[in-house]
Amino acid sequence: MATLTLQDIKKSFGATAVLHGVDLDVQDGEMIVIVGASGCGKSTLLRIVAGLETETSGEVLIAGQSMKGLEPADRDVAMVFQNYALYPHMSVFQNMAYGLKIRRMPKDEIVRRVDQAAALLGIGHLLQRKPRELSGGQRQRVAMGRAIVREPKLFLFDEPLSNLDAKLRVELRAEIRRLQRRLGVTSLFVTHDQVEAMTLGDRLVVMNAGRAAQIATPMEIWERPADTYVAGFIGSPSMNLLHATLEAGGGAAILDAGGLRLPFADGPRAGAAGRKLTIGVRPEHLRLGEGGLGVMVELVEPLGGESVLHGKLADGTPLTARLPGARYGDGPMQLMLPPELLHVFDGETGKRIEAGG
Amino acid sequence: MRKKVIFKGTLLPYLLLAPQLVITAIFFFWPAGQAVYQSFLREDAFGNSVQFVGLENFLDVVNDQTWLDAAGRTLVFSGSVAALALGSALFLAVQADKHIRGADVYKTLLIWPYAVAPAIAAVLWLFMFHPNIGLFGRMLNGLGVPWDYRLNGSQAMLMVIMASAWKQVSYNFIFFLAGLQSIPRSVLEAAAIDGARPARRFWTIIFPLLSPTAFFLLVVNLVYAFFDTFGVIHSLTHGGPGKATETLIYRVYVDGVINVNFGSSSAQSVILMILVVALTVIQFRYVERKVHY
Ligand SMILES: Nc1ncnc2c1ncn2[C@@H]1O[C@H](COP(=O)(O)OP(=O)(O)OP(=O)(O)O)[C@@H](O)[C@H]1O
Ligand SMILES: [Mg+2]
Questions:
Q1: pLDDT per residue over A150-173, tens digit each?
Q2: What is the pTM of this model?
Q3: Of A266, A272, A256, which Cα lies nearest the Cα of A343?
Q4: Fold that domain B55-290 belongs to in CATH
Q5: Domains by residue range for chain A, with CATH
Q6: Closest Cα in chain A, distance from residue B190 (Å)
Q7: Residue B194: which of A318, A276, A79 has the closest Cα?
Q8: Domain assignments of chain B as residue spans, ordered by start
Q9: What ipTM did this prediction achieve?
Q10: B1-28: pLDDT as tens digits
């Protein structure tokens, strides 16, 4: 159990810069989920914390101690890999005991710890099997057991669930959360699945092209995304992003498509008339109503209690709406944008603009 | 998924196999059959009469002290060749598996000795270790080490062991390297995070995962040392000085070609053949059971 601090971590592989300076402060016992598109540097960041990769510049501190130049073996962290990375020639028991044996723990203590972890994970009956005799879910449990028995300062998870089927994924997700809470071990969890991110993390780090676009609790990120990337990445279906310009006085936006006026409920935005904006609205916040935004619906996906409608605005901008009920057809439709649920972003930088800012 | 091609009838498949079968028959089964046949016969000194003697040739061979000496020598020779060739190949493969600059050049260079004919390999070693013209041979003598493998039996043995092992290192290297590269990197990383330092990672993870490969290579190397080293020995020492480097395979040649004792020579080859078949059978048994994945 420990805190983790990342200070301006940068990493390049040869000429390609992968991380452009990541800062992060993790509290003792906190579960941080790092989420982002493929190739944005999530694994690289995790591997730098583990010591498997060396940062080009910046510093990793675990429990306040600099990890500069320390081998993975000296960092007292445990890692769970996507492909499990079990030792194929060892039994489940030996897999879990490996790290303890290296630390010269007495035999009876090893047996006690392994038995305890195995019971916790429900793999007590598998201890004598070899990894190849296990199912994917069982292997992942063993990999977690191997991490737990060590009682490390830090758990690192690199997409541990993405090789499993959907049902098992949900099951193990809940299990990981329960275990992490119960053991109180500080954890970093990498995923590109936003549902996993939202449900697992005390806080999320949304990464975009080697930078942390936003670090906040899942609800904060959902309610107040820091920029258009985060806005589009978190939430399903993703947020609609519409081009608009600021009205004189800053009290409303005028949509480029159709010229609809959208007043800001929470106060005016700074800037001259005509400032380029991007207005974000979540599909589930759109409602049917006269005098709204004109949409040509092209596809309706009924989900039972609700439907997802895909359509286009007059200028061809795609729009998605999630509406209650199942009785919708293709064709023209008017949708209202509730003023209190609009997100305002700068049209050029994509950064969020708060009222008065 | 392997695609199975099914031929109609049996003629075509046999026809396609025929060249291989014919070659195997002419160059292996026929001479091998001849050897087995000869091993039961005895010819008189002038080659006038041939007579069937049953297992007498075999009994003579195994009761011959000089043959037993050669067998002991072969054991030392083969064991040393296998140990040296396997050990150095493993070491080199571990080095090549690290991410180093110029790794491809290094790998290519290491594979070359395999393409070198035994006689040429022997000449190469001769140029290095000949007491008068060899670079290292002269250096040793210059340093006061009385080096002359033409007179000193142990030195001769050392020479043929080194030259034979050198030729086999490439082959072992390729297999070891492939074996190393088939170990998932994340498994080694997991071990590193579990606290294992490089030496421990090698002995507890890499080595056990390589052991099926190592065992396969051990058998191949032993078979190589038994049979394929004739060329090296013949070019370097002719089995001498005295009988210092006369291994079983060299003795087959000496008795058969030089002493023209076909019966005994054939019996010796048959014994060697049985040995190889036994080794191969053990190998298949073991490898089938010991694969981890
Ligand atoms: N050893 C390496 N050498 C060169 N480039 C690398 C290396 N490892 C990673 N990269 C590059 O760094 C970038 C980030 O890789 P990383 O594995 O961290 O992505 P990721 O966010 O984990 O993606 P994914 O979700 O697909 O796992 C990628 O563009 C990748 O090509
Ligand atoms: Mg990754």
A1: 989 999 999 988 888 888 888 888
A2: 0.79
A3: A266
A4: MetI-like fold (1.10.3720)
A5: 4-226 (3.40.50.300), 237-346 (2.40.50.140)
A6: 7
A7: A79
A8: 55-290
A9: 0.83
A10: 455 666 667 788 888 888 888 888 888 7
